[in-house]
Every structure is written in C-alpha cells, then in structure tokens.
C-alpha cells in the first residue's frame, strides 16, 4: 500500500464531515493534505487502532505517548489546528451514537477498521494511570497521585523548570522577545506573593505544596520570616532541604512531608498555596479552606494561586480532562474561579483581591517546552520516552488553552478577618504593602 495517507485523510474527513487542516504522513511514506501545513506523522497502523478504540482525546493521547503519532513543524500550530477536531467538538456518547446512524459515517468507520487492521484494542502505554473512576481524595490516594506527577526525578524537573525550580505560573514584566527571562519572571512572582501576603521579619509563613522550596527560601531570605513548607513528595522534600541548607536557612525554614490536613502547629501569620489547590478536589475543597483558615491567626492572609476552568452549563456533570487525568495529574480537578471564591467565603474567609494572570502562564509553559526540547535526549534518558512525550504534549496544549481563554489562573488574596473588622489591608490594595 502506497497511499495510506490519502486513504486515511479521506476516511477521517468523511467521518468528521470537515476537511483536515493538517498534512498527514503515513507509515508507508505517503503524504496527503495541505502543503506547508504542520504534519501529523502516523507512524503505524496501531495509531489508527488507538483512535478507533478510544475516539477523541484519550485515544490521541495514547498514540502520542506510545510514539505512534507525532507532529512535525510548528507543534503549537499543529495542536491548535487539531483542537477543533478533538478537544472542542464536545461529543459525548449519545451524540456519537447518533452520528453512527449516518450511513456515510458507518462506512468511514468500516474503512478505518480495514485500514487499521487487527488486533483491537492496543494496550494503553504503561505511563497511563489506571484506577477506579471515583476520585476519593483520601490522604493515601492524594499521596499516590502527587507521587505520580512530582516524583518523576528532580534532574528531569531541573531541565524543564530551569534554575528557579518553580513549577507554577511566572509573573512576566516583559516577554522573552523584549528581554524577559524565566528566572526573572519567577523571582518576580515570588516577590509579588510575598507582598500580597504582607510578609515582614519575625512572621510565620506556611507554604502549602512547597515544591522544591523556592517560595520558602525567597520568603525567609528576602523577608525575614520563619517558614514551614509542606509537600507529599519525598523527592521534592529532599531537594528542598538541600537547597535550604545550601542557603544557610535551616534555622528559618523547615520542610516537611506532610498532608495539609495534618498541620497542627498554627497559628501562622500568612499561608501561601501556589499550584496546590488543583489537587484538592471539589468534594474536599471546603474542608481545605476551613483547615487553612483555622491555621491562620486573626488578620492573617492567604494567597491561593490556582488554575481555573470556565463554567459549564451543567455544573452537576463530572468534568475531567481524560488526558490530564490519566497521564499528568491523577485526581486533579479544576473549578471556575467563582466557585473557588464562594468556597473560601463559605469557610469564613474575606476575599479581598482576585488577579487573573492567564497570559503569564502561556508564556511560562512555552518556555518550559523550549527547555524540554533543548535537552530532549537527556530528558528521555532520565524519565523515559513516554513520560517526556507526556510532558511535552501537556505543556504545549496547556499553553494554547491559556492563550485561547479555555482555562485561566488566578491569585486570590483572602483574610481571616478579626471580629473587630480591621482587615489590616491598605486602602489601595494593589499597592501591596
């Protein structure tokens, strides 16, 4: 067969009812599609079998992680062109069943089955997390989920994150094209959080989900506070403790492997939670907010830095991104920012400021992808080819999601306001003093 690409293109277009916006190169070397467009490389028939067995995002992800699919040319342009066919179609099982009543659709499926060949289905890549569908968010399951994502290897994360070792949205004064750097933007983010929290010498900060210790070190070194950083990742904790020791801050920074529900040595003057609340889960979010409020002294501030999804018409439906859930952040859940603010207020917080920094995360993710691609061979050696492909896909796709306003990220400042009502906040809060 020397025309696999043309047959594949024709059958997919017949199935979807729209022209394919990308070029295809198939396993037999044939090509079809718009000249000059990003090329979807279909390396083998197994890629087609994966998409037939699991149409949509998860089948595409399985083929990508296994190395059956790739994109040549501009990765972002390729993913952007394909997003309308995969991520934005929004087809559920009912609409798929209705589509299969169409004789042309059924004929296209039969043609793809013949092209793919036996057997069906291929086994998922070993990187996929397989477990019961219900997300329990117990201490045990949360620890296992965190370990899956963060215990990939500190050397691998050094490649992706760079010297700052901050795994959350940076705060860019200028993009790289205008002289900005990732390290400078991450330093500015840590300083912005410190100012929003009103950190001052002698205070106590709890850093929930402390990662590799960057926020804890910055707060202690630059603002003179005592910090307790907590994480569920053994690898992160070991790395953070070494950094603290190298900085000569062991008298002011303690790193613990501890669940936030087990912290019992409050009150703290301030709490930072940066990129951690996405792991809490909707069923546990009120508990999370109540625990953090109890750990704050009256007048203490919380900085909650969290990715948000856009609201759906039916918020009672269970909304989980299959690729992210299966390969990246098991048990992770995103909520609309309005839901987050409501839960914080239900817990007794007074929400004083919400700042969206959506565009900043797109810039950050693109830099991380560049870092990964720049040391691809070493990254594959450290984490394995499948895991490296997972990270490249999820970071590039996430950058596009932020750019197109499909998801956002917000910093919420909330206070445990004392009974007197004196919040201690400046009249013009954005001065952050």
UniProtKB/TrEMBL annotation:
Gene3D superfamilies: Vaccinia Virus protein VP39. Residues 156-400 form the Polyketide synthase-like methyltransferase domain. It holds the Pfam family CMAS. Residues 117-142 are annotated as: Disordered. It comes from the Bacteria. InterPro entries: CFA/CMAS, CMAS, MeTfrase_dom, SAM-dependent_MTases_sf. This is Cyclopropane-fatty-acyl-phospholipid synthase family protein. It comes from Streptomyces plumbiresistens.
